[in-house]
User: Fold this.
Amino acid sequence: MLTLNPGFALILAAFLVLTAPRQTRTWIFVAAAFAAFVLLLGREFGAAEAVAQMGLPVVFLNLDALNRMFGIAVLFALIGVGITTGARRNVVEDAAILLLAGGTLSALFVGDLISLVAAAALAGLATAWLVLTSPLPGANRAGARLLIWHGLEGLLFLVGVALHLTEGAASAVLGRMDAASVSGACIFAAIMIRVGAPLAHVWLKDAVSHASPAGGAALCAFTTLLGVYMLARLYPAEPVLTPIGMAMIALGAVYAVADYDLRRASAYALMAQTGVAVALIGIGSPIALAAAEGHAFAVIVGFTALQLALGAILHRVGSARLTALEGASGIAPIATALGIAASLAAVSTPGFAAYATHSVALDAVARWETRVLWTMIAALPGVLFVGLTLRLALAAYAPTKVQPVRNEAPFAMVLGTSLAVFFCTSVGLAPQWLYGLMPAELTFDPFAVARLAPQLQLMGVAGVVYLLLRTRRPLPAPESEIPDVDGFYRGPLAQAGQMAGVLALGLYDASKRAADASGRWLSQRFAALVALCDDPFSRRSFALTGLLALSGFLGVLLLSTSQW
Amino acid sequence: MNGLMPPKRGGAGGVALVLCASAALLGVGLDFLQRHPDPFWIGASPGGAAAIGAAAALFCLAVARLAHAFLHRKRSD
Amino acid sequence: MTPELALIGVLAAPLTQAVLVLMLARPPGLRDVMHVSLSLFTAVCAARLVEAAADGEIVRVVLARPLPNVDLALSVEPLGALIAAVAGGLGVLHAVHTVGLVRASHEPAPARMMAFLALASAAAMAVAFSANLFTMFVANQALTLAVFPLVAHRGDEESRKAARVFLGVLLAASVGLFLPAMVWTYALVGALDFQAGGMLAGRVDTLTANILLTLFVLGLAMAAVPPLQRWLPASSVAPHPALVTIQGVAVLPAGGVGVIKVAAFVFGPALHDAAFAARGLIVLAGLGMCAAAVIALSRQNLRERLGYSCIAQSLAVVMGALLALPAGLFAAALQIVAVACAATTLTMALGTVSVLTARENAADFAGLGRAMPWTFAAFALASASMIGMPPFSGAWAKLWLITASAGAGLLWAAALAGLAAVLTFAHLGPLAANALAGEAPQNPFVRADGASIALVAPVVLSGAATLWLLLVADPLASFLSPVWTPP
Assistant:
């Protein structure tokens, strides 16, 4: 069997799609995903032979239960996204999506640090390219900002790996790393950017809100998942991950409810759900790791479906802000219904994949008696149900003064979204398939009454309380936005950087002027000295000339005698 | 007048309320009927998850109100 | 072609090229054909010499013997062969680009410029294949004198002033610092030939080693070690083809090769005796890298920005060479190759953009990538390589530089290299991103007939060359191993 990394098939397809006719591009997506599936599923667990590269072992393929599960999630998401791309004409974006998926998939399956960094960096650059190709207003600047984030991430990876390699060539093979060491800290910081940890989380919501419908879904599917995988591979049971995960849950939940742009709100919700996985990796027990990986799988597919649906609505309505969504159910009823179904899938509603993994997560955390984390994970579906599902439903089905003209989303978008929702539902109703993929042996029944009842009452009561107590206040003006930490980065921090630059430049100019002045002074003194020696027989210069000549003679004598 | 009004009639609010109430009643009922074999913390009491749900909804309402009242600013780009 | 013939060819071909280009200045077609075809021949000769070095052949050509045990000689060794091959290959692209540029911009005295470009190429080849310190010294002077008229080419006051700074700094450093060091070495060793394992190994005390190392490294001012880096930003007023020669193909690579040869073939293990001077020079290089990258950020004119950026990259070569580790020498060699490809691409792209749109300021580049996608795609690739972003070439050189620094126990040097990479990202990353991402400007072109293939194809090909290092890094490590392995 070929030892070709499945990601390479997608990277090749990215180049192929640039030259292919429009009608074949969707088929290229699907064919590439199937080719990658064949490469993935037709191989036994284990590592391919290492190839020497600059004296370091490079392992192009190392398959195990961990990366296989993530790889399957990526490929299923790719099929849904690929079908959606058939609704519009943007060959450059198609190539960017395939390159992003290919880079991510390659990174999942390589077995050494060098290849991991190279593939992750490629995926990062493809992410920026994806946003740059978006036709939405502001995408250019968002893409430039994303390039800065991923550039920093790539450099942190580079420095971390370089320092790690000082331990020897064998250290290039993937294994547990120490976040307390300098090299481990650099790589950890890079992964924190990738996974969207607090302070670095702003890139995801910025990118998703400016990406096209297909691009937004691709971003949700192929970016943070890689970060979760890298944490599970390199830093399992790292204690600091648990508080970081909790911070992600809290911050993501707040902004998911507060933001009026549902695409951005869903990006924040993804951050919160990813935070659950990060916290579980921090706990590090076998069931917690299995739960983290399973939850990342389910959440990725759920949010891909949600972004596809919101993208389909955006395509017809023109905006994903709540103000614009009023009456969307009349314009695109199927897309709206799919949106609600997808949001239910993303928020861990029973019957969908995320619920099956959410239950395992709660059990895993309960075993370690971490009450705060358990409560946060338990409450999160309630918060996201209100923030995403109810707000979408209330806005989309709000009565309007004028009857909207029906204009359903393009068939390709509806089909892609339907497939994604169907996948979430089928895994949700028969989760044993997903549990069988997990690295740990798991016998678990998420539909046991003792587990189902709390989830039903939690989400039901949350909905009832919200619906009864909510008041209809005027929605904010379209241009208003909830500020986040990127306001500080773009404002005071950027200005501080500019001032530091001006100061440094001033110092450099001053030192240059000083150097010029001293150079002029020296040359004037030298010219005076030369003028002195023009008249060697004058009293003033005789002694000096004689002294210089004697010194020169002694110097030559010294040099020639030292040879012997 | 502070600009607050009761929710508009019509739309999905009614359907959503019925569905949520049904789920809540079903969940609470089942919780009283059959307990978790190994309950943890607040899950040890029947209806504990309902309390978490109510807290989650209140959290959402508080955040939304705060966001609306204090955090408006013009879109930056 | 025998290796000896090829070795003579890398020198004779560019010299012949210079003469023919002047003689056949009219018609311009014949001049251009001579310029490109003899560049190609030089590249073929350099490739033949790589083959000879890979086979371990001993090739030496003596041109003159001015002193006992001191020849003006050329010899083939892996480092020189590699750099010569890269310079030769990029030189062909540069030649085609120069032809396109002089036609599009109606550059005055194009034949004279091409002749001096060819002479510079010959001198750079001589530096790469120099068999001893004396030949390197002579070749460096020849390179300085060949490039000086290129800096002064435009003939205005600004160019002449820049040329004076260029000539003054390089000649003064070479004669005032490198020459005494060379004489002192001859006095100690009795010969000047490069030796794998270092000619000074076991023959020099600590004080002498420290002084000699300082004199040699600062004397090789083409490596742009502070405070003798002023010639590089001063030369930014030169015509674009000259900038490519200075920053990409000849001058900076010659400086880098010189420092590596001094570290590997003159000092070798004696670098440990000169640890004090080496550490001091590494501090200078590290701080210089960061300072140059910060100053580049402040420069709106892209000629100046690229000049300072190239200073930062060149100092990474110096840092790697002085670490006294095989990994450091490998990093330095990779860095020369990566920066040659990237700097050549960037300066050629700048030339193309300048000729077609009359834009040379960073603020004017926003959105130009949508009007000139191929040029700016190459510009973006080269910027990424220059920054050291994986998976581009420059990343692997920086990876080894940081690894070698940490391996030598100089974590602060690794930190400085990392910081310089971040600062380089700051001054090149947003530039490339805004060029590709900004709104396309209305009517950006000043030429009605658009870009000729000679202006765009070399930029694209040399941009693609920034990717090849990823594929050949392992064979390169084996190829270069004789440099740090004594026989």
In short: The mean pLDDT of chain A is 86. The first helix of chain A runs from residue 6 to 19.
